[in-house]
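just leaving the lab so this will be short. below you get a single protein, a line of residues and a line of whole numbers that encode the local backbone shape. id like you to explain what the token line says about the fold, in plain words if possible. thanks a lot i owe you, the record is right below:

…
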Amino acid sequence: MKAIVVKPPKPGVEVRDLTQVIRHGSGTVKVRILENGICGTDREIVRGELTTARPPEGRDWLVLGHEALGIVEDSSDPRFKPGDLVMPINRRSYHGKCLNCLVGRPDFCEANEFVEAGIIGMDGFMVEYWYDDPKYLVKVPKNIADIAVMAQPLSDLEKSVEEILNVQRRLIWTCDDGTYNCRRSIVFGTGSTGILISLLLRTIGFEVYVANRRDPLESEAKITEEAGIIYYNYSKDGLDKLKSMGFDLVVDTTGASASLIGHEIEMLKPNGILGLFGFPAEGELTLRYDVIQRFIYKSNAIVGLINGQKPHFQQALAHLAQWKSIWPTVANSLITRVVDVNDDKELMQVLNRKEKGEIKVKIKWS
């Protein structure tokens, strides 16, 4: 059985034939892999940069991959039948004791007892087949199979927007027509995370800007134009202009310098909220006393954003279906490259580095 294997925290990746069966939880549903998505976390593990990554207990290797689309081959659970398309949930808690884990929300685990497929203590889904627990499987409509692998990263952002709106229930944040149409947001970063959360914010009615340090690539221009998103090059037009405009919501997805966060804080309008998705890779955040005073006086908030759960996967699939109908150019632009799992050279390239203009690269299994 072919699998893509890593040995965290050591760098490196290999395609290996496994003799043992991969089984998760009750393991009552056999799933054959169709395709995997690749994200920055996978590449950080391959390069040995993610220090929190670890194999399952008792061995030194880990099957990579937390974004997957598969097909049911066999099932003893009546909810799933052969031929069903399914997507596995990546963060789980099989033996969790905290209240959040016990009610199916290990994304809020308070005891640090969760596992995460292909990342922390649990084999991932870059493997020919595995046996899974139906509790952690979501059915996928066949008419969005071509873009369904986007539902995993989108699920994290479904939860992110849910958290932002929950925090903002501290006040009346809707407009006088009951919508969010009067609220202005800006998303820093135009990778897959930035594009997806921008589309999600447009879906619920926000005015949306996306910002990067360069002009848009052709694929980004097509997406932003069709979805009605405003692109802003802040290396050309500056950050001070954004501070003077003011935003109800700022989201950072860059994973770049921590120093950018200081500028983002100064862009917040009264009652505005800053969402941080991803981890700064360098730099320091230093805030002057007067910036902190204004932050407090304006009743601003900052929230860390990470990891969706099963309800968010279901919401993500529904939104992908919606976008395929109302924004066909957007839907067709989300998958920027497909690599065959048997093409060793191309496979190693995409597992090690991000390509220019990439939104989502996926691995196709024959």
Remarks:
- The longest helix spans residues 151-167.
